[in-house]
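Researcher: Next entry: Aminopeptidase N (Cellvibrio polysaccharolyticus).
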Amino acid sequence: MSSASQPQPILLANYTVPSYLVLKTDLTFDLHDDQTRVTALLTLQRNPQAVTDVDSLVLHGSELELESIALDDRVLTAAEYQVDGESLTLTGLPSQLTLRIVTRIKPHLNTSLEGLYQSRGLYCTQCEAEGFRKITYYPDRPDVMSEFTTRITADRQRYPVLLSNGNLVEQGELDGGRHFAVWHDPFKKPAYLFALVAGDLSFIENHFVTRSGRDVTLRIYVEAKDLDKCDHAMDSLKNSMHWDEEVYGREYDLDIFMIVAVDDFNMGAMENKGLNIFNTSCVLAKPETTTDVGFQRVEAVVAHEYFHNWSGNRVTCRDWFQLSLKEGFTVYRDAEFSADMGSRTVKRIEDVALLRTLQFAEDGGPMAHAVRPASYIEISNFYTLTIYEKGAELVRMLATLLGPEKFREGSDLYFDRHDGQAVTTDDFVQAMADVSGRDLGQFKRWYSQAGTPRIEVSDHYDEDALEYSLTFRQSCPPTPENTNKQPFHIPVKTGLLGTAGDLPLRLKDHPVDTETSDNTSIVLELTEAEQTFVFQQVHEKPVPSVLRGFSAPVKLHYSWQREDLITLMSRDSDGFNRWEASQQLALRVLHDLMQEASLATVSAATEEAIAALIDALQSVVQDETLDPAMVAYMLTLPTEAYISELATVIDVDAIHQARQYLQGRIAHALKSAFVSIYQRYDHQQAYRADARGIADRSLKNTALHYLSLLDDESWIETCYEQYRAASNMTDAMAALTRLVNTDNPLAATLAENALDNFYQRWQQEPLVVNQWFSVQAGCNLPDTLAQVKKLQKHPAFDSRNPNKIRALIGVFCNNNAVNFHRLDEQQQGQGYRFLADEIIRLNKQNPQIAARLLTPLTKWRKYDETRQQLMKAELQRILQEELSRDVYEVVSKSLAEA
Ligand code: B3K
Ligand code: ZN
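Model: Predicted structure:
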């Protein structure tokens, strides 16, 4: 691609308000097999706030066939507007006008799954961020909010269900076996929240009475075969509606709320006003087909999309640089909801593990960007862990700094002040500042500076003065857009552990804010590059428990003694830090092991470290006060992905071997504890997807995992037995995963039987078949790449379906490091080549999925020289192609000089 034709970045600094407002948007969709005709009648008014180009209007449009355009009922000639592949521009316009635009589109040929497309015979839409422009010419920007009316006509037999946003106002029969429906959405919204669905769907229905007494109809639309898998989503929806009233005082605002499940979907779900469209994987759940993680995901995504009705729809984003305004806040809201529905500490551990593994890696790589980025080439590339998960951490920090009451006042003010508006992250922070009287100016750096701050902690105990001081030094490594970082405003929730538990805290020269701190935990606020806090009347040298609950998204460094970690692990009142201490302790042992010349004989010092870890884990297993889910997490070693994130140069094989070795040692040492956990478990108990049920299964399956590592085939037989007898997918998958990953002839035979049986049993269930692909793609044994390639030819594989692509190719490239990065002679660089070939294929078919799949190759700088060269060569090969903006942006940024 020549540099002149290379896509150019869009800059936040260039934002200008729209020249025209669209008061009303009346759409008619005539759905026919070979094409869809879209008629858009727009009522426009000059924007009184517009400063430039006041008489010209840019309508976005892409891949549209323009049939006609009329201004105030007069059809325009081609000389009266300019049109290119991306927009249609009109100039010399009056201050009030109507436009009637007729376009034709071809949903059946749309493989990008953006705009109007077909999934298994169903018509559906995905408009966020910029998909509406693939439906009709329109000012497709979130600060243009309009009142939509949508009329749909289609064949009555094949498309009996016709849906759009808002309330159904009319429906009826038409000639030629066709029918129509008209929907009106009374709430102004940007085009990205528009949705349309037409197809042969069944539904389950329920009701919710809001606290002001309005009755809301709730419907979940699915294919008839899936009606038995909707109850969990419906329960989750009702719980979310109730929770948002209780916790945020937010009620639902239309008479009906609909969810539609579709099989071909680029992401999890979409919060279209009153008509959420979901990936089937985020709606359908029943114990026989869905794992516990799947159940939790359904609950979280249903809640997330529902919560967007306020944080996203009623109050939306001014421009796409503000994406985290709605996404970060909504992730924070759904995380708090899940915490309230299940176990708060466990939810926090899961979220932090994800953040530290994947978001920190993003922050440390070539695609690093601020929570409010300053530029982008393709906005679809910015639906990232940074915008979502780190964005949620920023909201969490605001809640920590303000305390729960002020935070709620701030969110009330934000919603009331900006209802019906398109606003910025600054507006959000301003509402928090206004209610609390706090200066959050420095806090806003979190939105504009990318990168993960690093905090070095050191301490000093003065036993004569009975004073204990903690010194914090913060810094932040450079990232592509910002090299020089100013200090962040960081809340560090801290406690001090004495021999008898948490010590009372008396902080010198600092009034304690009782909103955010209690007697044994205090929120220290770092604002400078270096800062010291002195605690008084400390009668013994304490063990510091810093960053409780992971109160800020930072990398914390403190040289704990091994004994300190063991103390924190067994006695910290903060559950998160108990888990964190177990991970720190294990990480040290893993690092020691990675230094060993050979794992056949390890040094005495490493042996001692292993023994200490095993002792500590033994106490964890015996601690009857601990939630079984916590025990399971504390027994689970840091993942290869997390160890890799922490490494300067990732030694794929050493990490894998050290982790395998240590798991084996733990299995031997704690065998009797694991046997007793496994035997104690009531294998006959009925499945429940609640916190207790999930916790019990997770501990039992962690025990089985360790037992399967013993050199004792009876445990392999137990895995097979568990697989065969399982009445739920969690237990079946846990056992199957062990069989597939165990390098032993008996396990291989049993794995083959189980995999055959699994496919035979579940071939009619696409979501279960995806799990079947994933368990094979994730296999750590050699020859997995060959198996993955073979599975691509399997009749159940569909190279256009994003769920299938993620299940097979995504899992192999992201979750199977030893195989993806294989360097042995026959397979050297084959994983990289395989992925690059897929990306080149998908670049044309579905650019969003192609760009997303690139992630593992973008990390090339973190590997050894040989791997770097091989990975880079594949990126360069991709760059030779004619690329979509999506893929171009990721590849070019990955190859840019650091
Ligand atoms: N807002 C959508 C994401 C849209 C992604 C567009 N490429 C789902 C969500 O975050 O709720
Ligand atoms: Zn969202």
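Model: Note for the record: DSSP finds 28 helices and 32 strands in the chain.
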